[in-house]
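Exercise 7. Given the encoded structure of a 416-residue chain, write a plausible sequence.
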């Protein structure tokens, strides 16, 4: 989320996002390919290869060719429940969630749970007020609060009958928080991924508001944050030990929104799939197999032209999906977080005198004229699931991106 960035001004905002435009360099070729034309020509679909490379570059030809009945198509040494043919459909797993502390970061982990294990339990409801400075949290009462409901359940055991499960690390944007893109992260977890997201100091909403309201500046080190998360994923620390051998640290993807997308752009040595959202493109890396660039054509914060430039400079194989009429926050739940009176986060904060909220309006891009969140999420879910499944689950995605090009709300699909 890039709201409330009045602190540094618009030009500094774009610099912080790492979206200052194409550097003019030619895109470097990736060392391995799972999609696209070997000639480098642009296409509007996918070649539908049933083989991809893992993070070490080894062949990971799918163990089976069917995803209906029995185990789903998956990488050698892994087992998945049958997945829906449509990539925007929720997967077969119940989603569990745990809140952890990793290297001083507050981290949420969503992961696959056997269906039915949630029986008799209440789903999680996240309290957005925790992301305000402590001095401001009491200004919004329970009745006024825009609660964030999650189709997930607290502290269940992971589904040990399947897996191990690949990992997706998500990085939120400026003035946001770890659950900002909850619909997408639950979507991935329901389809057989462990999803890890942290509140990033200096980037999160609480710190930006505190800075405006006299609370001082909190340092930001996204590189160190991601290094700490990766150390936990690789078992170098024990915070994720509850997942046991059901976590596959050899298959990692990363996604990020806005400034978070900028933070993952150079992590191609760690992740096989990179997905910057409203954030530009990526750089080559030894593990990187594919890039998916997502952007909204009506983004008033990071213009769509910058997504085009980011796509052009990213290494192939790569794809671009443009969302027609979508704004900057279409890749999050921010605009849809409303209370019982229909007020959104900004309106609630302003009405209750939350310090700093009055400066946020010109960057809080929520409007009925933009592509509706539910339509945007369906597109994002389909594109991201296809990109992740192809490489991290060794799944033949067929003509998924060709088909996506014909969906209402999709402005364009590019592929190389």
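Solution.
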């Amino acid at each position: 989320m890039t709201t409330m960035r009045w602190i540094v001004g618009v030009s500094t905002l774009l610099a912080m996002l790492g979206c200052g435009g194409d550097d003019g360099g030619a895109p470097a070729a990736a060392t391995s390919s799972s999609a696209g034309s070997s000639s480098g020509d642009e296409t509007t679909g996918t070649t539908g290869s049933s083989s991809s490379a893992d993070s070490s570059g080894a062949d990971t030809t799918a163990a089976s060719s069917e995803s209906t009945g029995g185990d789903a198509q998956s990488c050698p040494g892994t087992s998945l429940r049958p997945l829906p043919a449509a990539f925007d459909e929720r997967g077969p797993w119940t989603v569990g969630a745990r809140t952890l502390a990793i290297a001083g970061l507050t981290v949420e982990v969503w992961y696959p749970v056997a269906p039915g294990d949630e029986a008799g339990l209440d789903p999680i409801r996240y309290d957005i007020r925790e992301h305000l400075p402590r001095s401001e949290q009491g200004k919004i009462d329970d009745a006024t609060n825009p609660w964030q409901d999650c189709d997930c359940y607290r502290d269940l055991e992971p589904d040990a009958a399947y897996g191990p499960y690949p990992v997706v690390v998500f990085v939120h944007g400026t003035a946001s928080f770890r659950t900002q893109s909850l619909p997408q992260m639950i979507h991935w977890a329901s389809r057989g991924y462990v999803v890890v997201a942290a509140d990033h100091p200096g980037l999160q909403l609480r710190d930006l508001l505190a800075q405006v309201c006299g609370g001082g500046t909190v340092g930001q080190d996204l590189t160190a944050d991601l290094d700490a998360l990766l150390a936990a994923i690789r078992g170098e620390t024990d915070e994720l030990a509850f997942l046991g051998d059901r976590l596959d640290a050899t298959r990692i993807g990363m996604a990020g929104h806005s400034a978070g997308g900028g933070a993952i752009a150079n992590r191609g040595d760690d992740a096989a799939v990179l997905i910057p959202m409203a954030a530009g493109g990526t750089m080559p890396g030894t593990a990187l197999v594919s890039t998916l660039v997502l952007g909204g054509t009506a983004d008033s914060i990071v213009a769509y032209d910058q997504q085009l430039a980011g796509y052009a400079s990213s290494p192939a194989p790569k794809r671009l999906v443009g969302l027609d009429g979508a704004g900057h926050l279409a890749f999050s739940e921010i605009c849809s977080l409303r209370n019982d009176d229909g007020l959104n986060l900004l309106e609630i904060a302003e009405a209750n005198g939350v310090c700093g909220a009055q400066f946020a309006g010109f960057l809080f891009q929520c409007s009925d004229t933009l592509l509706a969140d539910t339509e945007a999420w369906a597109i994002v879910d389909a594109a991201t699931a296809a990109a992740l499944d192809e490489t991290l689950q060794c799944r033949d995605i067929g003509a998924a991106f060709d088909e996506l090009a014909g969906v209402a709300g999709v402005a364009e699909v590019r592929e190389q």
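Remark. The chain has one domain: 5-9+40-415. Students should compare their own answers with the one above.
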